[in-house]
Amino acid sequence: MATYSSISKWSEEDRPREKLMLKGKEALSNAELIAILIGSGSRNESAVDLSRRILASVADNLNSLSKLTIAQLMNFRGVGEAKAITIIAALELGRRRRIEKTVELIKIVSSKMVFEIMQPIIGELPHEEFWVLFLNNSNKVISKSKLSTGGITGTIVDVRLVFKLALESGATSLILCHNHPSGNLQPSEADKEITKKLTLAGKSLDVKVLDHLIITETKYYSFVDEGIF
Length: 229
Description:
The protein is an alpha+beta fold. Helices cover about 40% and strands about 15% of the residues.
């Protein structure tokens, strides 16, 4: 008779959740990924063994697994309604992901492009906001984040947070943006100072600050275009 061993007693690198964290999602088998979804097995069977049994019933074919109903999944001992719903929901997300078009990243080639991206977001706000566009090594926008919100007179930017987000997203460069609700495009001394501070910090982390734009409802000011950089 085979001896059942709880996942909690497995070596850390063999536990599905820990394995994903240590080695990445590609290192996990289908059974291990499903085991993460269902969370736990039963008294006599681990979540991984339960997942293997479910997959074996459909010849290890995920497309066939996605066609099983809640009732059919609940026929497996150890699978209740909640686990069945979780499996179905995850597989449905995978199906929808396949049919969606891949979003083409926008390549920044001018300050005007940055203005066109950010004006609808901050150009007409009654208060000041500071945003950062994170770019890859092809100058394509990976993501954009609001770093702070302030009053009409100004906003505070956390330099550490800017580069934490940059490193987490794998960005190699970034563009700073904030709005002037007053409509005045001229940078303040505080605007110049934060630009210098972020540029200097970026050099030490090999993340280049490409530009800083001040945006109003209809116009913008680029530090690069105006020769401040």
